[in-house]
Amino acid sequence: MDPIIIAVISGVVALIAGVVAGKFLFAKDTKKRIEEAELQAQTIIKEAGIRAETIKKEKQLEAKERFVQLKAEHDREVNDRNRKINEAENRIKQKEVSINQKEASLDKQIKENEAIKENLNRQLEVVAHKRTELEKHQEEHIRRLEKIANLSAEDARAQLIESLKQEAATRALALQQEIIEDARQKANKEARKIVIQTIQRTAAEQTIENTVTVFHLETDEIKGQIIGREGRNIRAIEAATGVDLIVDDTPEAIVLSSFDPLRREIARLSLQRLVADGRIHPARIEEVVEKTRKQLEEQVMEIGERTVIELGIHGLHKELVRVVGKMRFRSSYGQNLLMHSREVANLCGIMAAELGLNPKLAKRAGLLHDIGKVPDEETELSHALLGAKLAEKYGENPAVVNAIGAHHDEMEMQYVISPIIQACDAISGARPGARREIMQQYIQRIKDLENLALGYQGVEKAYAIQAGRELRVIVEAEKVTDGDSDKLSFDIAQKIQTEMTYPGQIKVTVIREKRAVNVAR
Questions:
Q1: Which residues, in sequence order, are bridge partners of residue 262?
Q2: Which of 205-219, 263-277, 399-413, 488-502 is least confident?
Q3: CA distances from 313 to 97, 139, 316, 317, 361 (A)
Q4: What number of other Cβ atoms are within 10 A of residue 207's Cβ?
């Protein structure tokens, strides 16, 4: 045969023999593994049995412990319950004993009261019997008196009452005069004391306002930008703000002139923004002024809210809060209006507390008394009447409305706080340093007022009071009649109005009196 075929056959035979031998060895190894696995399984089963027995014993022990614990808790609860029941039974027994004792005591008291009642009834019967006998004796006595005096009991009683009435009226009149005089002296003394204490307890600030504001510049070159070509920028600023800009040789400064501090503040803030921005032209000026005006309105509300919070005033209408904020930018005789109103409010609160009145209501009226000086539009009403109208419009208390309208005697005072507001307003305005006025001019104006009144026939004396706000004219009763007094008051007021220059208004009061004096010797 071919050697190649023989080799192939030999290889196949060898391969078959190897496969057979491998199967035999694999079967023998598998049997051995199975036996080992069976032994391992039996070992695991024994261990599992031992572990299960251990767990069983542990659970049994836990169950016994839990049972013992629950039994102990149950016994404790039962003992507590029994203890509470015993305590409740003891309390009930004590209450029963107490009730029995009270019942016994009440029975005893009832018996005693019945005995007292029987005794009182017997005494009442005796008193009634004696009263009857007394009435009979009294009637007999009255009949004898009527027979002797030839006058009935009713007539005698009437004469006695009339004489007692006359005597009592005479004594009452004398006593009334003494009380009135004593009260007047004490009232003046107490009033001075309260006013002095109020002034001493209030710390006032010196607040004098000017009519010009100086705006400082970094360099004089900015003046040219503010003036603009042919003065168009400065004209635009003046037209938008209503403030006069004075640009002179003063180095690094521009003067803002206006009687209205609010306008001056708008102009100052607008100039400050324009200079910082560097873009100064009419359109930009109008835009900046409008923005500044809106922001200042917000600032006005903030000032008003802060003021009412600091003074402890609550429930004020938003429009009145805005008016209070606007007072920060107003002045009266050079005195800042908001500072003046705050000062008056504090004075009113202290004075009302000293008099035992409502200090919060007085403080509210003091803060609002000059709101008529900051109207949103022009009106012919005086500031006091306008302020009262605004307060009434926004729902203020009638006492506050009356105090505002009457603090310059333009309305009749109907509430107790009204004269307090008037007095505190005078205190704040008349204190040294509060208002700006040249002393010589003030004194001359007072003299002119008095001399003007003394020039009329029948005038005996003339006094300018309340810092020149009122003129008191005393006339001779023999030369001036009551009708002439009305005409004289009108004539003097007209002459003051046409010939004199004065701030605010002046009240002219003509006094004519006839005195009858006699001396008892």
A1: none
A2: 205-219
A3: 63, 72, 7, 11, 9
A4: 18
